[in-house]
Amino acid sequence: MENIKPIIELDLYLIRHGESHGNAGYGREDLTIKEANDPYLTEKGMTQAKAAGIHLASIDIDAFYSSGLLRAVQTAAEIIKKQSAEKALNIHPLLTEVGINPEYCGAGMDEICEICPTAILAPDVSENDPFVYHSNFDNEGEMFERAERIITHLRDRYKSGEKVAVVSHAAFMTFIVFWIMGFKEAVPAFDISFKNTGITRIIFYKEGTNKYGDIVFEYINDTAHYKIM
Description:
Order of helices and strands: EHHHEHEHEHEHEE
């Protein structure tokens, strides 16, 4: 093993969106269905997203993904702006947060493209697919299955050391991380409190080439970029 060179297949940056009006509270109860399910970032959230972009600017990200929820799109758009070259943003419904009201169908690509002009549907998503996934916390099996599907999508598509940034949401990110850790049927007895724009870096190595394991968590929930806000 000592003589085998580690081969990175996928270098994943998993990022929670910046603070939204849903996180901060609207200060009123008569919310529209869109406000309740798909809030925009607050001013603080935009600052967090811009800081994350500056923090990641020196890393040439090969591909960007986000859910179709606007707080994730806004965050990804600000990070993309700091890249040295224009990058597409792949919108993938699998990255939708847990607990979205079944009556809310999503903002749609027109509004998303106003926020991020480079936004496109992810390669395995068609215009006929649901734009957001509707699920609740009572069905952990469904969440783990969705986590498996998005990680499988990324690992099937990126196998040559690509750096991929994925902007998603706290609850669903928890299922992604737990699934990668090997908790694939039930949530363990601990939790991860993902901060707004907290960055988790996970490296997937070619099987058997890294003495520390095929999957390595470089860091979880890094918020070092807060110091430049």
